[in-house]
Specification:
Elements (H helix, E strand, L loop, with lengths): L1 H7 L9 E6 L2 E4 L17 H11 L1 H6 L2 H19 L20 H5 L3 H8 L7 H19 L23
Antiparallel strand pairs: 1-2
Helix pairs in contact: 4-7
């Protein structure tokens, strides 16, 4: 699973969300890694998403990390960000690929099983399954706020059929 591979890298974060120590003397806030790219500021709102989708559906990058796998890892980082900030600030993991998220990540579906749900707690800095349910509920609302588009007939709701209360129910 890509998420466990990411977690094994020598890139660590602290509880205060600041600290991807990429270079010994450089510490950048976790959420800053996903901030909008200045080159795209005059492009469509979804340009960053479009480029990620192109790269992870075609060519060599797609062979290594297919788009669905990338989306699931990106959503995990979004959850991690939300578990640390838990406010409506602009400081959040943007999760650019989430614009293309059409289905619930596999690990959330698996989290209906108590044993699997418990495995998600520590990586997300949570202690209980109830906290995980609350986080997913909060994340659903945040995604609606972030990605909804008034010009579209229906808002972007990739988790619309997922019920957080099902986590840990089996």
């Amino acid at each position: 699973m890509l998420i466990s591979e990411i977690r094994e890298k020598e890139i660590a974060y602290s509880d205060d969300v600041c600290a991807y120590n990429l270079i010994d003397s450089l510490c950048i806030p976790f959420n800053d890694i996903s901030q909008p790219v200045e080159l795209f500021k005059n492009s469509s709102k979804n340009r960053h998403s479009e480029i990620l989708n192109q790269r992870h559906t075609n060519g060599k990058i797609a062979e290594i990390v297919p788009m669905q796998q990338f989306i699931e890892a990106d959503f995990f980082l979004f959850l991690l960000s939300e578990s640390k900030t838990r406010d409506d600030s602009d400081s959040y993991w943007h999760g650019w690929s989430l614009f293309y998220m059409e289905k619930t990540p596999k690990y959330l579906l698996e989290a209906k099983k108590v044993d699997f749900a418990k495995q998600l707690l520590s990586p997300l800095g949570l202690e209980t399954i109830e906290e995980l349910r609350d986080l997913i509920s909060h994340a659903k609302t945040r995604l609606e706020q972030i990605w909804s588009n008034p010009s579209m007939a229906s808002p972007y709701l990739p988790l619309r059929n997922f019920q957080p209360e099902d986590i840990g129910s089996i």
